[in-house]
Amino acid sequence: MSQNTQRTLRILVAKPGLDGHDRGAKIVARALRDAGFEVIYTGLHQTPEMIAAAAVQEDVDAVGLSIMSGAHLTLFPAVIDALKGQGASDVAVFGGGIIPQDDVPKLKEKGVAEVFPPGSTTTAIVEWIRANIHPRAAAA
């Protein structure tokens, strides 16, 4: 399949945990949609298991997590583990929100593909996705 005929990237945008602030996630979801990606937004208060189940059901290529509560060191790896448990370890996980720069290497060590700290632009997120996320192989 040539690069030009591959399907549109599917990105799930999710808010894990009890964080009730979703304005940033909605802005990112809209920017991704406007950039031509298919976007699924799960809404607030999602458990890692709910996010992984939605990712598998929607056959997404990547999951974008937004967190403002400070629980990123727990919740981001929990989503990665839940994806592995669902047989979807090839789904890339990236995220942003209120994440201290010192925590970025810790998240990457746990499998987070990229972290967008406060002040990141939607353009930077779109460009990173275009450069780093590719359609997953079709299920056999």
Q: Care to count the β-strands?
A: 5
State which percent range the strand residues make up: 15-25%
- The tally of helices reads 5
The string of secondary-structure elements, in order, is: EHEHEHEHEH
Low-confidence stretches: none
- The whole-angstrom Rg is 14 Å
Binned, the helix content reads 25-40%
Q: What overall geometry do the principal axes of the alpha carbons give? A: globular
Chain oligomer state? single chain
- For the termini, the CA-CA separation is 16 Å
- Strand line-up in the sheet with most strands: 2-1-3-4-5
Q: What summary fits the major beta sheet? A: 5 strands, parallel
Mean pLDDT: 93
Q: Mind explaining what this structure looks like?
A:
The chain is of the alpha/beta class. It has 5 helices and 5 strands, in the order βαβαβαβαβα. The protein has helices at 23-34, 48-57, 72-85, 104-109, 122-132, and strands at 10-14, 38-41, 62-67, 92-97, 114-116. The protein has a 5-stranded parallel β-sheet with strand order 2-1-3-4-5, sandwiched between helices. α1 links the parallel β1 and β2. α1 crosses α5 (122-132) and α2 (48-57) packs across α3 (72-85). The longest helix has 14 residues, at 72-85. It is globular.
